[in-house]
Amino acid sequence: xxxxxxxxxxxxxxxxxxxxxxxxxxxxxxxxxxxxxxxxxxxxxxxxxxxxxxxxxxxxxxxxxxxxxxxxxxxxxxxxxxxxxxxxxxxxxxxxxxxxxxxxxxxxxxxxxxxxxxxxxxxxxxxxxxxxxxxxxxxxxxxxxxxxxxxxxxxxxxxxxxxxxxxxxxxxxxxxxxxxxxxxxxxxxxxxxxxxxxxxxxxxxxxxxxxxxxxxxxxxxxx
Length: 223
Description:
This protein is mainly α. Helices cover about 70% and strands about 5% of the residues.
């Protein structure tokens, strides 16, 4: 992959890989290559010409359409199925932590959420073979992309805050007064590990948003 291809891939890194986006990538890449060739033909140093060509396009946000039409029932069905899979995996992973009150509560919430998603999935699946499958809905793509970006950022900040809080409450006083850090047996070690592991189950939220964006491209109605 040449430098211009890498640069164009970076510009479109937030916009998925739909046929429409691939066509737009090719168009932008072709324009940048033409500009680079013109600059080099004018006698400009190749490295300086490459930098100038890149500087001519620093964002593709205005080129990407804000609204797309999506076949809404298949979209909802596959998104619900994916969320159900994520939730079931999280519930299975939480089973060893059920001996603790917090772990038991999270397991209960996950299994309830799984049941709700399973019901919704079968509703969408039963209607997908009918006239509902032809229904379309207009989605604000840029809004969804912003939501995806900020969901990951907020989740990362949440995890960092939780980890710092656990470290502060468990270890800071001992470190401050020079006491050794002592973990009294496997049960205390398990409790400490649970404090770090349990918040990570919330990753199904940003993963669900990412899946929603991916399925928007999959079920986009071709113009």
